[in-house]
Amino acid sequence: MLSAMKLMLTLFLSGIVACYGGNANYNSILLVSFDGFRADYLKNYRLPHLQEFIEDGVLVEHVTNAFITKTFPNHYSIVTGLYEESHGIVANAMYEEDTKKKFSELNDTDPFWWNEATPIWVTNQQQENRRSAAAMWPGTDVKINNTIPHFFMKYNHSVTFEERMENITMWLNNSSPPVTFATLYWEEPDASGHKYGPGDKENMRKVLEQVDNHIGSLTYKLKALGLWENINVIITSDHGMTQCFPHKLIKLDDCIGRGNYTLVDTTPVAAILPKNNKKYVYNLLKNCNTSMKVYLKEEIPDRFHYHHNKRIQPIILVADEGWTIVQNGSLTKCKYFHPSCSWWLILLNFYFYC
Description:
Elements (H helix, E strand, L loop, with lengths): L1 H18 L8 E7 L6 H4 L3 H8 L2 E3 L10 H10 L3 H4 L6 E3 L4 E3 L7 H4 L5 H6 L5 E5 L15 E3 L7 H14 L4 E8 L3 H7 L4 H24 L6 E6 L12 E3 L9 E5 L3 E6 L3 H9 L5 E5 L18 E5 L4 E3 L19 E3 L6
C-alpha cells in the first residue's frame, strides 16, 4: 500500500511538470504546513476536518525528513527537493566563518543564505503567465535569486491563521496572471508542543482541535470561492516531536569550558565551532555523555547527507531521543526532533488534471 502511495505521489509531481508545459487550463497548487505535526496525532486525536480531507484524497503515512529535522532546513528541503548540504539552509542558526555572517530565526532575510538553491515559488514565477503567493512560509519574504513571490506576507508570528488564509485565498481567486503556486505556514502545533510537551494530552488536544478547525475553515473558504475543484492542496509538516525530561540533560559545562568553543546551533542537534584546537574540543565532547553522539564534520554518517557545505560546523552533537543538550542549568523548553525518523504528513486533495 505504501509503495502505491509513493507511486501516486510521484505521478502527481510528474503531472505538475507536464502540465506546466503550455496547457492553459491548469490547476493551482496550495502547499500548507502545520509546523511540528507528529504523524501519530492523526491516530491519537479526533480531527474530523482532517479526516474528511484524507477521505477525499491520498494519505502518505511516512516520509523521512532531511537531517537535521528543524524548521528552516526542512521547510527549504520541501520546496527545493534538496538535502540541506545542497540547499545551504543547514540549521536554524548558522555562522559562516569566511564572511563572518550570522543567520538566526530573527535574522533570516539576507539572500546570501538562500541563494544556493531555487525554491519552487521562484521556478513557478519564472514561467510565462505564472504567479506565486506566500503566507509566511520560511524564505518567502526573501529575494531569492532576484525573485520574490508576486504576493507575499513578511513574517510576523502574531498574524492570525485567518488573516493568512484570507490573503492566500484572495490572491488565488483574483490574480491575473493567475497564482499557480501558493504556500501557507502556521506555527502550530509546534509552538504548543515545545511549551507543554507532546505528551500533554489535554493541552495538545486543544491546539490540535484549533489546527483541525483551521483546515475546516480553509476547505470551506476554497469551496465558497469556487476554487475547490481547480486546486491541488497539499498539507504537510516539517518534523515530528518527542517528549523530553528534566532529568535527561547533557550539560556541556560539565565537560568543557565555554572559552574553547562557540555554540552556533542548539539541541537536539548542536553545532560546535572550536576556537582553537579542534581535536582537543572533540575529545572532551566525545567523552561527555553516553546519550550524545559526537561527530567531526567529515565523519558524519553518509546517510545524513550532511557533509558538503561550509556552513556545517566542524563538530556536530546529536542527543539521543528524549535527551536535551544544554550548556548548564535546567530544562526550560522541551525540544526534540529525531534526526532520522520524524515524518512529513502529506495529504493530496485531488489528482492533478492536465
